[in-house]
Specification:
With 100 residues, the protein is α+β, with helices and mostly antiparallel strands. The longest helix is centred in the N-terminal third of the chain and has 14 residues. Helix 1 packs antiparallel against helix 3. The chain contains three helices and four strands; from the N terminus they run βαββααβ. 35% of the residues lie in helices and 31% in strands. The two termini are 17 Å apart.
């Protein structure tokens, strides 16, 4: 069953660190089966607090998402995210439904 990693960027705190994160995070996708579903495009907040940006990545399953998140390349990248912005990030299992 597919899995989704959802990033909600609340606030950029250090643009230089965040720029390093963006560069390293892109490189960290290499070798992983990731589909960008939404990636910091235009958004309208319908409920709750405003966010600077949202990204949603799809993985084949929860294990694949965790393998990417715990990979050495993404571990290095996310250290810059921690220093560069305030985020909420979560992993959620999809509800794959076969058409009938």
């Amino acid at each position: 069953m597919s899995a989704y990693v959802v990033f909600i960027r609340e606030k950029t705190t250090n643009p230089d660190e965040f720029a390093q994160y963006a560069q390293k995070a892109a490189a960290a996708r290499t070798g992983h089966d990731i589909t960008r579903i939404a990636f910091y495009g235009q958004m309208d907040v319908l409920e709750g607090p405003q966010a600077e940006g949202v990204a949603i990545l799809r993985f084949p399953d929860m294990d694949a998402a965790r393998a990417w998140y715990n990979s050495p390349a993404y571990k290095e990248a996310r250290e810059h995210r921690f220093k560069g912005a305030e985020y909420r990030m979560f992993l959620v299992e999809g509800s794959d439904v076969s058409p009938t």
